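Researcher: Good morning. I'm working through a list of sequences from a screen, and I'd like to move beyond sequence-only analysis. For each chain I'm collecting a predicted structure so we can compare shapes side by side. This is the next one on the list. No need for commentary yet; just the structure.
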Amino acid sequence: MKRYRVFDHTADMGIEIFGETQKALFIHAAFAVFDLMADLHSVQQKESHRISVEGADREDLLINYLREVLYLFNGKKLLLKRFSIDEIDDRHLTGDVQGEIFDPGRHLLKREIKAVTYHRAEVRETEHGWQGKVIFDV
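Model: Good morning. C-alpha cells for this chain:
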C-alpha cells in the first residue's frame, strides 16, 4: 500500500495519506512530513522523544500530531525518521519518534514546511483502509 501522494494546492502543498489502520495513517502522515523536507537516508535514529497529543476530532488530532512533529524540527532541529504510536483513538494519541539533530554537513534539506493547516483536512475510514488529506504552508 502506498504511504502518501503529493497534490498541488495553489501556493501550498497537499498530501493524501493512506493506511490500513488509523494508526498507520498517522504514522505515514508524520513520515511524509520529513520525507518531503529531507533526504532521510542519512538520518540515524539516535534520539527518541515521547509524544502525547489531543484533538477535538480525528482531523484536529492529525493536525496537532503533525504540528508537534514539525515543532521538533523547527524548535529542536530534530530530523525524524521513525514514528510509532502506542495508543490512538479519535481524540488522543501517544507514541514515540526517533531521529537525530540536523547536521547541514550530512543532511540534505529538500524543502521547508512552515506549517500544517486545517484547510481541507480530512481523516476517514474507507472500505480499503484509512485515508487522509493535509495541506502544508510551504
